Amino acid sequence: MPKPGKGYNNIAGRGKSGIAAAIFSGMSSSFTDATVSTLNQPNLHYRLRYYGFGAVVALAFLLVGRFYSNPNGLSQVYLPFVAATLLVISLAGVEYHLYVQRVAAEQERQLAKREEAELQAIERQRSFNNIWQDLANSRGSALPLAILTELSKLFSADLVAVWSVDQVGSFHLAAAHPLANDGAVRLDKVAQMSPCFETVRESQRLTRVTDFEQESTKAFAWFCEENGFKEAILSPVLVRRELVGVLAFFYRENPQLSPKLAEEMQAAANLFLCAF
Q: Angle of helix 44-68 relative to helix 16-33, nearest 10 degrees?
């Protein structure tokens, strides 16, 4: 019969190292198969599964230790402590690995967002170049609807409209898309006396209109309500600090207007300088 010290050393050394190797090899293969979406979400079932795996390993270590050790030896005293320590270490390893995976997944997601934003910026710049060329080619004639169609796609707008300003300061609808002819005629009439255009004239900067009843006329508010528009973003077209036109984007859902997007909207409005 082996001595208590010798039996305890065998368990603590050879048996512990073998079980630890089995733990980390099994956990590594399981974590490798886990999807990134599962790691990103606080999935209780996923965590409890590996907690249970660690508990089973600790119990197996305890049972094997009791089976191969001297019942009257000191190893019986230390086995529960060693098993509990092993369980704590395995659970800590699970949490650390989950944390590392979440951080890595978040970094990959942020990188993907930056790459997508860069691609969108390049696409917008390419579209701006094409729009500027089309506006230059159509100077003195009606604005091509393809330009407004492209702008509505770029900024996910439900309606894009362009107003020009005559020498006496009156606003006239130059083009609107997508909108029927009768709707365009009505929009031209209801927007001519709208205070929100005077606000753009005075501020000479991009203006958001979220309360049509308070910031515009009742006729303009009724038009927006009938068409389901909840917000309008007005971008001024300026020449020597004088308002010569307005590019408007209408939305049925309130958009998230970031400073970068606002700059791009104003850049799109500046393209119409060659059209007025």
A: 160
- The predicted pLDDT at position 65 comes to 64
Which tokens go with 241? Answer: 């600090």
Say yes or no: domain 138-274 is CATH 3.40.190.170.
Answer: no
DSSP H/E element including 244: strand 242-251
**Pairing relationship of beta strands 159-165 and 207-209 according to DSSP bridges:** unpaired
Q: State how far the Cα of 172 lies from the Cα of 170, in Å rounded to an integer.
A: 7
Phi, psi at 81, each rounded to 5°: -65, -45
Whether residue 236 is preceded by a cis peptide bond, meaning omega within 30 degrees of 0, is no
Q: Bridge partners of 232?
A: 209, 250
**Is 158 in contact with 229 (CB distance < 8 Å)?**
yes
Confidence at residue 72, expressed as pLDDT on a 0 to 100 scale: 57
CA distance linking residue 242 with residue 235, whole number of Å: 13
Residue spans of the domains in the chain: they are 4-111, 138-274
Question: Which residues of the chain are modeled with pLDDT < 50?
Answer: 1-41
For helices 145-154 and 75-137, what crossing angle results, to 10°?
170
Return d(Cα 235, Cα 112) in angstroms, integer. 30
| 8 Å CB contact between 250 and 230 | no
The C-alpha atoms of residue 248 and residue 159 are separated, in whole angstroms, by 8
Confidence (pLDDT) at 161: 92
The identity of residue 128, as a single letter, is: F
